[in-house]
Design a protein that fits this description.
By secondary structure, the chain is α/β, with parallel strands linked by helices. It has helices at residues 11-20, 37-43, 85-103, 138-157, 180-192, 217-227, 247-257, 278-287, 290-293, 303-311, 321-332, and strands at residues 2-4, 26-29, 50-53, 70-73, 107-113, 122-124, 160-166, 202-205, 237-240, 263-266, 298-300. The protein contains eleven helices and eleven strands. Bound molecules: NADP nicotinamide-adenine-dinucleotide phosphate.
């Protein structure tokens, strides 16, 4: 099995569980920051993999065709607002197609995002791809194009494509940068210590019953590793998510765990919240692109994922009641 993107936020969570599941895994890693691939993997505490130096944009053809039965492809740029949109497309679309055409594995597992559903309401099905949706940002559209291009190349080359769409995954990236929800929760907890804010309100613009799409980091590695080779997942797209808590429940759990009772979800009558306080403006900035998804009542169907996970004996994470409080506690202590 070949794993790309092992040093990334998602790939590094998948690498260990793939090895633990008994796969012989080769990780394609590039040299960076004066460190060679092996040193980078060691620094991340990733052991038990064969490390192969490689760069995907331009030189995928140096990889040996037919050498890998399964390719788990997590070397994708998931930024919503990339600095260089053409570079994002080269990696997500062109390099993915190049990998399929060059390596021709039996199966390619593409790590994507539920955000390809775009800006719409109702329920997004796992089988849906381009339904004429509008997008919040360029990153969503690029990832949708990558999924479509992978499926088309898979069909041409006889490669089975499995798409795994994830929700928000918490935790640090390779440089130690935190995800948006952890940054937000950390800021709220820090401000809760300031007596000036003991009676402050902190409004988050959202939709109280709207779902919040989360793929807990502690679960995602094992879930991806297990379905990567499962027969039920063959040729399918799976929404690998926890049954979503409502935005109201999520932010109530943050208010409780961070001890900031004035935190609550408020639906603005129109557009953005009017007259945000300085604290609210900082908190909204910490939420980053997550803010674009609050206020949305788009739900993600998980029928195919449930079937595939049940085949491999993995339960969906529990983010209700105490499960949600534990998850938010984890965001606080990262
Ligand atoms: N993070 C999340 O919360 C989240 C949520 C939902 C879905 N996803 C999806 O998961 C996928 C991976 O995202 P991520 O957050 O793990 O991204 P990431 O942290 O930016 O990691 C990207 C990985 O790709 C590698 N890479 C980038 N360009 C490369 C190239 N030219 N050649 C070889 N390797 C290259 C990077 O290697 P270097 O370390 O060498 O740069 C890194 O290992 C994306 O499709 C994203 O949409 C992520």
């Amino acid at each position: 099995m070949l794993l790309t993107g092992a040093t990334g936020r998602i790939g590094r969570r998948i690498a260990g569980p793939l090895v633990a599941a008994g796969h012989h895994v080769t990780a394609l890693v590039r040299s960076r920051g004066g460190l060679d691939p092996a040193a980078r993997m060691e620094r991340l505490g990733l052991a038990g993999l064969t490390v192969l130096e490689g760069e995907l944009t331009g030189r995928a053809r140096s990889l040996q065709p037919g050498a890998w039965e399964t390719l788990v492809h997590a070397a994708l740029d998931g930024h919503s607002y990339p600095r260089d949109a053409r570079a994002q497309r080269r990696l997500n679309v062109d390099a993915t197609v190049d990998l399929i055409e060059t390596l021709r594995p039996r199966r390619l597992v593409l790590l994507s995002t539920v955000r390809v559903a775009g800006a719409r309401r109702g329920r997004a099905l796992e089988s849906e791809l381009d339904v004429g949706q509008a997008f919040h940002n360029a990153g969503e559209e690029c990832m949708l194009e990558a999924e479509g291009a992978a499926r088309a190349a898979g069909k041409r080359c006889g490669v089975e494509i499995v798409v795994l769409r994830l929700g928000h995954v918490e935790g640090p990236d390779a440089e130690g940068g935190l995800d948006a929800l952890s940054t937000f929760v950390g800021l709220v907890a820090a401000e809760a210590w300031n007596p000036r804010h003991w009676k402050s309100q902190l409004r988050v613009p959202g939709l109280k019953p709207g779902p919040i799409a989360l793929s807990p980091a502690a679960w995602i590695g094992a879930a991806v590793a297990a379905v990567a080779t499962s027969t039920t997942a063959a040729g399918r797209c799976l929404h690998l998510l926890a049954p979503p808590p409502s935005q109201e429940a999520f932010f109530a759990a943050v208010a409780e765990r961070a001890e900031f009772p004035g935190l609550r979800v408020q639906t603005p009558r129109r557009g953005a919240l009017r007259n945000p306080t300085r604290l609210e403006a900082r908190a909204h900035a910490a939420l980053g692109t997550q803010l674009e998804y609050l206020g949305s009542d788009l739900d993600f169907d998980r029928t195919e994922a449930a079937a595939a996970l049940s085949e491999v004996g993995i339960e969906a994470p529990d983010l209700g009641g105490t499960g949600l409080r534990r998850y938010v506690g984890g965001l606080l202590h990262l």
